[in-house]
Amino acid sequence: MTLHLPPGSPLAGQPWVITIASPGDPEDWEPVVCGPYERDHALALARAVVADDDLTAVVEPLLPLDGVAAINRAIEAARTPAEEDFPPQVVQKHPGAPPEPAEVRAGWRRIAAGILGV
User: Fold this and answer.
1) 37 φ/ψ angles, rounded to the nearest 5 degrees
2) Contact, 2 vs 43, CB < 8 A?
3) How far is CA 37 from CA 27, 74, 116, in A?
4) For the residues 50-73, what does the mean pLDDT come to?
5) How far from each other are the two terminal CA atoms of the chain, in whole angstroms?
């Protein structure tokens, strides 16, 4: 599952994380949270991991916030009802083959450069 983003959403450019868990009892085992990834990489990796196993994957943006004030602003924005609601949806289209490790590492470099503004 992931967020349905409207075209041009700034969230698409954020780093994304994958949480993989048991679809049953949450007490089965601790979820695995991995990332950050570029959105397309996260979707493809999550799809590949859960394809042949009874797992649930949630792909969501990671917000690199730089302090308490920024975190509080994000919380306030989340608490404020938005004009449009884009609820989580199960990804219907196949995002393609999962990226190779070298592609993921290249994505990490792009994410780091974006966070640092370099």
Assistant:
1) -135, 160
2) yes
3) 27, 21, 16
4) 91
5) 32
Report residue 31 as tokens. 């979820």
Q: What is the identity of the amino acid at 6?
A: P
Bridge partners (DSSP) listed for residue 88: 3
d(CA 16, CA 63): 8
Task: Record the tokens describing residue 116, joined without a space.
Answer: 């640092």
Q: What is the pTM of this model?
A: 0.76
- The Cα 24–Cα 42 span in angstroms is 23
* Separation CA 47–CA 37 (nearest Å): 14
Find out whether 38 and 73 touch, Cβ atoms under 8 Å.
no
- Is the predicted pLDDT of residue 90 greater than 80, yes or no? no
pLDDT band for position 8 (cuts 50, 70, 90): confident
The pLDDT assigned to 43 comes to: 94
Distance CA 67, CA 90 (A): 32
Domain ranges of the chain: 2-116
Mean pLDDT calculated for residue range 29-40: 93
